[in-house]
Design brief:
By secondary structure, the chain is an alpha/beta fold. The chain is 31% helix and 20% strand.
Length: 168
């Protein structure tokens, strides 16, 4: 059963004069990124492919998460920066036989995609969480049956939201 993990990048800094694409993670964001990877692994998920936006903060988030996932392939996907649900689905529909995929991206696309994909049998608490938007350093986990090309509205089960934010 394929699994999709939609992760929002961790807390980033907002230095004056720096382009949005270049914003780095804050210290708390670095800690949360590593912790998010640990929490995803502890929940029993082992991504084999990471699709990551080209922004500095998403790349840094994944780099710190990745230490929890040996052998996970990284693909930087330019189309994940400033995209929408349909744009994300276009990327996912191109996947082949991947079992567990993590997407490290941005809001509001991450939470909007989780809500769009979530079928009626989804976890109520997880649905409430994504309805308010994914916080930095959190991930929504969805499972579904069938090929990636068939992923669409209400075709997946939102099982949980995992947070890496419980750090000092």
């Amino acid at each position: 059963m394929p699994t999709l993990i939609l992760a929002r990048h961790a807390k980033a800094e907002r230095p004056a004069g720096l382009q949005d694409m270049d914003r780095p993670l804050a210290l708390i964001g670095r800690k949360a990124s590593a912790h998010l990877g640990e929490e995803i692994a502890a929940a029993g998920f082992t991504p084999t492919l990471a699709l990551v936006s080209p922004s500095n903060r998403t790349q840094q988030t994944w780099s710190l998460m990745a230490s929890s996932f040996d052998g996970c392939e990284l693909r930087t996907v330019d189309d994940l920066y400033e995209t929408h649900v349909d744009g994300l689905l276009e990327v996912l529909h191109e996947l082949g036989d991947e079992d567990t995929v993590v997407v490290v991206g941005h809001e509001p696309t991450s939470s909007a995609a989780a809500a769009y994909l979530a079928a009626d049998e989804s976890d109520t608490d997880a649905l409430k969480s994504v309805a308010h938007g994914l916080s930095t350093g959190t991930a929504a986990v969805l499972t579904f049956e069938g090929p990636w090309a068939d992923l669409g509205s209400r075709t997946a089960t939102l099982t949980q939201v995992i947070s890496g934010r419980d750090v000092d």
